[in-house]
Amino acid sequence: MDYEHKNREAWEGESQTAQMDMEAITVLSVKPLREPCVITIPNKLRTLQDQVGGMIEAVYPFEDPVAIILNEEGKLNGSMPNRGLYDSSGNLYDVIAGTFLIVGLSEEDFCSLSEELSAKYMEKYKIPERMAFINGRIRMLPVTDSRKPRDKTSQNQTSGKRSRTDEAR
What's the CA gap between 82 and 54, in Å, rounded? Predict the structure, then answer.
């Protein structure tokens, strides 16, 4: 009977671990030069690694119960600089390279972001940044979306070009 009891405990423990691995979490995905997006993924190590493109590292730069999951070798493997991390005075102190995730924290594991935290960090990272060296210092500059189509009249006015229809008049 003792053997049966131990097997049952082992089976129940495996079942709980399998359930935890299959649990989906809602996180914020932040890719270089793009606005963040909310995604739902399985709470599994392999999935987190796939999302950031390599071995994961968790950093905790905020007082909120959130973590940034990033590729621990992102700066070494040539990943594109993505967003800056700033201290309370607004000074840049680090740059995240490559895609990163913002996840919630529970007592023992990563968990879904609350809607409030998701909205807060969506707004915080809404504007993509590009790294630049200015006067010997690294800076992260906001990137505006120049791909948005403008209407033809504003294009002609700003470029100073006249169209054939204008010339015919």
Answer: 16
Residue 144 CB: number of other CB atoms within 10 A?
9
Residue-wise pLDDT tens digits, 30-65: 999 999 999 999 999 999 999 999 999 999 999 999
Q: How far apart are CA 158 and CA 154, in angstroms?
A: 6
Q: Specify the pairing of strand 137-142 against strand 100-105.
A: unpaired
d(CA 19, CA 43): 10
Residues contacting 77, CB < 8 A, separation 6+? 54, 71
Contact criterion met (CB below 8 Å) for 12 and 6: no
46 three-state secondary structure = helix
Structure tokens at 25: 């979490």
Amino acid at 49: Q
Look up residue 110 and give its amino acid. Answer: F
pTM: 0.73
For 55, residues 6+ apart whose C-beta sits below 8 A from its C-beta are 49, 71, 72, 73
